Amino acid sequence: MHPTRLFPVLCALALAACTSNLPAPPPPAPAGAGEGASVDERLLVQRVSLELEAERPAEAAAQVEAVTRGVGGYVESATAREAKRVHLVLRIPAASLDSVLAAVSRLGEVEDRRVSALDVTEESTDLEARLQNLVAVRDRLRQHLQRAGGVQDVIAVERELARVQTEIDALEARLKRLRTDVAMSQVTLDIHRKRVLGPLGLLLAGLGWLIGKLFVIQ
Hints:
- By secondary structure, the chain is α+β, with helices and mostly antiparallel strands.
- Helices cover about 55% and strands about 20% of the residues.
- The protein contains 6 helices and 5 strands, in the order H-E-H-E-E-H-E-H-H-E-H.
- The protein has helices spanning about 5-20, 55-70, 95-105, 120-145, 150-185, 200-215; strands spanning about 45-55, 75-80, 85-95, 110-120, 185-195.
- A 5-stranded mixed sheet has the order 2-3-5-1-4.
- Strand 2 and strand 3 (about 85-95) form a beta hairpin.
- Helix 1 (about 5-20) runs parallel beside helix 5 (about 150-185).
């Protein structure tokens, strides 16, 4: 292949190799903000785990589903074990999370509650910068493809173009998932029926209380 024909291809390949590995630029500081973004400007992935005791788990689960859909959320998965226990995984709009949790708490007795928040602001900024760089590389490769004169030139550019497009698709999928996790908080809810002690259970519980009083008065 003539060197003058191969030169644009080599330039494109070098540009793709270098640009795709460029570090993400730091996010611009918001107007009037100090160091870093404020709490309201951070991107948080919130996850909540709740264990609820209710007299009728199935009825409580139906009310939870109604509340979830009422705020624009949805049920990601649901499983039930007879009438004793229901397991739900919910997706709740982040802005409505507190109100939904308050409504769920009124349906029974909350035995366990765990809340976590993962800050993904920097990860999101990095992914967006990498995506922008790769899109620029893809556009330049398309331009080189239009000017390619030989078969070898076309094959080389198309191969690199396919690789870059694969990376773009992967980054777009990761960004979409990340934005969904930020916008829709995940709530894992376990609802179980309140235990009712039988005669023998009441007797043993009473004996345990009496034995405890033998050692501790107050």
